[in-house]
Design a protein that fits this description.
Blueprint (H helix, E strand, L loop, with lengths): L3 H10 L11 E13 L7 E9 L3 E2 L2 E11 L8 E11 L2 E4 L10 E2 L2 H8 L24 E12 L2 E3 L6 E10 L4 E13 L1
InterPro entries: GM2-AP, GM2-AP_sf, ML_dom
Organism: Phascolarctos cinereus
Protein name: Ganglioside GM2 activator
Length: 193
């Protein structure tokens, strides 16, 4: 897969397609992108590198992503993901975005099941995962997962009103039944048409 962390971040952080009456704002640009592992990267699952070009990203448009993730433990279902999404409403003052229809500050009981809704079990992994021999279903074996710089076309994206233009930060915490597996932070600015 692009890497476990990238799929997790995309699954839980990006807006989902929906009917036109629910989403009326169209995303046009993503800028000020940055990321980091929480706690100095001491968790069993860490992002060791992540490159995104160009920044800003025009939407629709093309983006190139290169990434490496290291898992020091195997990841088996259920893998819980707790997402905290906040918007800066005044310099230094962040407002939590509530979980509404699976978007915002949400808890996902098992991201393995979430991945299975996008790539049904038994189907081959999509490109470029297949080309690079990257898995796309749980369990994920212990090891390093690398995606060389690969270009992707980003289609038009509609946003819910709660995700209008502005600066956002997200934190994603992965865990199994008893252990924190990984923690990642993303900062980004969104602009709408």
């Amino acid at each position: 897969m692009k890497s476990l962390a990238l799929v997790v971040l995309l699954v839980v952080s990006l807006p989902w397609p929906a009917s036109a009456n629910q989403y009326s704002l169209r995303l046009s640009k993503v800028s000020d992108f940055s990321w980091e592992n929480c706690d100095g990267g001491h968790d069993p699952v860490v992002i060791t590198s992540l490159e995104v070009e160009p920044v800003p990203i025009s939407i629709p448009g093309q983006v190139t992503i290169g990434m490496e993730t290291k898992a020091n433990v195997p990841l088996t279902s259920p893998v819980k993901a707790v997402v905290t999404l906040e918007k800066e409403i005044h310099p230094g003052f962040w407002l939590p975005i509530p979980c509404i229809k699976g978007i915002g500050s949400c808890t996902y009981k098992d991201i393995c099941e979430t991945i299975d809704t996008f790539i049904p079990p038994g189907e081959p992994c999509p490109e470029p995962l297949h080309t690079y021999g990257l898995p796309c279903h749980c369990p994920f074996k212990k090891g390093t997962y690398s995606l060389p710089k690969t270009s992707f076309q980003i289609p038009p994206v509609k946003l819910p009103h709660s995700l209008s233009s502005g600066k956002y930060r997200a934190q994603v915490i992965l865990s199994d039944s008893s252990t924190r597996l990984g923690c990642f932070k993303i900062n980004v600015s969104l602009a709408e048409k």
